[in-house]
Amino acid sequence: MRDFWSSIMLTSGRYHGNPVAAHRRLAGLTPELFERWLSLFAETCGELFDAALTASFMDKAKRIATSLQIALFYRPEHDCPRSAP
Ligand code: HEM
């Protein structure tokens, strides 16, 4: 996790994992839980960092949460049915 945030915030290149695969293994993960995750993450950042750094972490966290959710939950065949011929 340290390597991940180091790579995101400092572009250190230390993280070589696959977050989508790691989260795909989790049973019971729902889009609603991502809202809860972001709110807990914001609370923790607020305890650790000043407002500017918290905003910077949250900007990254929200973007990654969105792309994780697209990778995990978006199913074009369900969400965008082909129009009738
Ligand atoms: C509902 C939201 C989330 C839940 C419940 C959750 C839970 C977990 C759990 C249980 C693991 C360990 C998986 C394993 O080792 O098999 C994990 C790994 C990880 N999570 Fe999340 N996560 C959530 C959202 C996020 C978000 C939004 C981020 C990034 C901003 C994130 C970043 C990571 C990373 C980097 C790992 C390590 C992956 C690896 O092993 O390479 N997670 N998460």
Class of secondary structure makeup:
mainly alpha
Please give the domain count. Answer: 1
> CATH superfamily, please?
Globins
Major beta sheet summary? none
Oligomeric state of the chains in view? single chain
Task: Name the shape in a single word.
Answer: globular
CATH topology: Globin-like
| Radius of gyration from CA coordinates | 16 Å
Name the ligand types: protoporphyrin IX containing FE
Question: How are the SSEs ordered, and which strands pair?
Answer:
Elements: H1 2-10, H2 19-24, H3 31-48, H4 51-73, H5 76-79
Helix pairs in contact: 3-4
Structure description:
The chain is built from five helices and no strands. It has one domain: Globins (Globin-like). α3 runs antiparallel to α4. The chain is globular, with a radius of gyration of 16 Å. The chain is mainly alpha-helical and 85 residues long. The structure holds protoporphyrin IX containing FE (HEM). The site of protoporphyrin IX containing FE has 16 residues, from α2, α3 and α4.
Short description:
The protein has 85 residues and is mostly helical. 71% of the residues lie in helices and 0% in strands. The longest helix has 23 residues, at 51-73.
What features would you highlight for this structure?
single chain, mainly alpha, 5 helices, 0% strand, binds protoporphyrin IX containing FE
